[in-house]
Amino acid sequence: MxxxxxxxxxxxxxxxxxxxxxxxxxxxxxxxxxxxxxPGRPLNGFSGSGxxxxxxxxxxxxxxxxxxxxxxxxxxxxxxxxYLLLAIAAWVGVVVWPLDLLGxxxxxxxxxxxxxxxxxxxxxxxxxxxxxxxxxxPGRR
Length: 141
Description:
- By secondary structure, this protein is mainly α.
- The chain is built from 4 helices and 2 strands.
- A two-stranded antiparallel sheet has the order 1-2.
- Helix 1 (9-27) runs antiparallel to helix 2 (51-69) and helix 1 (9-27) runs antiparallel to helix 4 (115-135).
- The radius of gyration is 18 Å and the shape is elongated.
């Protein structure tokens, strides 16, 4: 019995790496309320629409591994357009999340107080780039 697996390709490897970056970003603080006398209260990606970033990262890892779980049959979900839609969902989570805090943004989104938010932006941009790479691969699916 021979199994003919196609190689992952650069786009899918990028998608895996940036999905892991997005998962790590959800665990870090996305916003820290600047407190004068009290220590700041951090918020992470699981509060508000940042949860979309977490779900998109998990879905990317599932879609990448789906062809290997399905055996020799081709999987229709493993296409560049699916990765682009997941990147768009993650962008919605990243862009809408600060809008929930519109009145309290004074300094709390600085990179030293919100490393998770900025890491999520980098991961989402990388996932968008991965979808672009997959769309322009020779013999793309």
